[in-house]
Amino acid sequence: METETIKEHENTTLPFEQRYEAMMVRSQKVRSTYSSLKDQEVFLQEEVTRLNGEDLLLEKVQELFKHLLNKYVYEFAESFSEIVSEGLQSIYHDQNVSFDIEVEQKRGKVYANFIIEQNGRRGNPLDSFGGGVSAVVSLLLRILVVLKSDLSRYLLLDESLASLSTEYVETCGDFLRKLCDELDVNILLVTHNSDFLDMSDNAYRGTADSNDRLQLKKL
Length: 219
Hints:
CATH superfamily of the domain at 152-219: P-loop containing nucleotide triphosphate hydrolases
Structural class: alpha+beta
Order of helices and strands: HHEEEHHEHEEE
Shape: elongated
Largest sheet: 3 strands, antiparallel
Helix content: 55-70%
């Protein structure tokens, strides 16, 4: 405070012209600062407007993606349901059986529920029906994933059809045979069911030697 008082006292002793010039310099600095702040204000207002526009655009894009995703999921579910139903009907030819994927949204997310309808009864394949139907549905879905994902067309079925009833082994084997011939799918089926032997191109019997190593013999 003491230094400022001395400076103020000294300034009042300056000639009027010098004090006027000093005041004009300070005034010019104030105007320059004000002009700079106004420019920043305009820039910030434009930036806020631009960001608000981007937010609106992002919201619209997000809604578009949700719409496309939902559309894709529903179309995917419908086509998969039809294909799996055809596969089931070709194997369980004497039954009224079909497959359906029910799509629903919960808390902004899409969920798919697998449903089997067999002779008028609907339910989850794992909870409401025998293991044979569930095994066939699992097999058909795996085949579809391989085909849709453009993966190598090799399928390993390790006792995947063990629960299949004996009366449907032949129709299931015919279905797998047709699948290999028409879609160029290669299947390695590991099974204890010898009824599948006549439907394969190559069959082997596996036994364990004295060292528990697998030995294969072509049949």
